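pls ignore typos typing on phone
flavin-adenine dinucleotide + seq
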Amino acid sequence: MRGPLDVVVIGGGQAGLAAGYHLRRLGLDFAILDVQPTPGGAWQHTWDSLHLFSPAAFSSLPGRLMAPKPGETYPAAAHVVGYLADYEQRYELPVHRPVRVAGVHHDSEFLRVETDSGTWLARAVISATGTWSRPFVPAVPGRMSFQGAQLHTVEYRSPHDFAGQRVIVVGGGNSGAQIAADLVYDAELTWVTLREPRYLADDIDGRALFDHATARRRALDEGRTDTGGVASLGDIVAVPPVRAARNAGLLKAQPMFDRITPTGTAWADGMTAEADAIIWCTGFRPALSHLAPLSLRGPRGHIPTTGTQAIGEPRLHLLGYGDWTGPASATLIGVGRPAREAARAISALLR
Ligand code: FAD
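k done
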């Protein structure tokens, strides 16, 4: 048994590290538990060509600017991994890995964190486990009958794995558009989206999205009309490779198919597309199964929160995941503010 500590942070990706930064500043006694053997959270597992949709200076965690990489306006995922590894070291964040948290339980005045390498007691818990480990694939008739390969965004690495193949990419968000643009020169691509792709204006990148999220936050804080989330601007950031493929007329989207056959996909009007592989770029769900023992789940699988604080358990904060834990909280630049709020709220609670 380890502890009791003031705080156990579950997850050592960007959200967990931002929490650690603020907990350290407030002088709290904490540990960060992360299942990955190496630093970098989900950024370690993205496809080879993925670049951020914001310049380095607009992709930084609290306290330390991400250094730009010469010649790269939008840093590659590998650059983010290096930045997060350095961030951990610079602030001497106590990250324990690999440690998988199996469950968080009530235990008299503490929360008991059960892991695959022992038990930790904490006065408060910050859950920052992200979404990458819970890929979502919709139920489509015939899906199990398909004889080709089926994979999700999390398994896609490189167009070279699909050279010359017939590939159906499903999804009209950033992952779908970027993977379609990545594949289109090497594979025979069919891109399928639920609705007509909605590109943000070409001059909008992560900077403008963050400004929009901040303005929304301010409006909500001041009781003014909700300006709408960044989704109101569009679904796809026109990053350079997406813009190039779209402008070359290579990104033509088909509407969503109605069923999957053993050899491809079929639409109600009789159209079919044969395929060697289907890549599902259909999103993620929050990784919250370790919190199931607390019985806090609300609608849509989320845990209801006020800001980052769980309504049913004030000693628990949720960080990252999506807008429901704070505007832009699932981005590098956006997680700093909710991390600060969570650390301050815990500090006040423990006092
Ligand atoms: P993660 O990075 O997933 O970290 C969570 C950590 O918790 C992981 O190490 C995980 O293994 C660990 N964990 C999970 N469960 C447990 C458990 N039970 N016990 C212990 N550890 C556990 N954001 C930007 O700011 N700019 C961008 O350009 C950008 N592009 C993106 C492109 C794509 C394709 C995607 C999917 C996201 C992008 N994002 C971008 C969004 C966001 O920055 C990432 O999703 C980010 O990785 C979320 O960080 P996190 O710390 O919340 O989660």
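The helical segments are 14-25, 77-90, 174-183, 206-221, 240-247, 336-350. The first strand starts at residue 2 and ends at 10. more later
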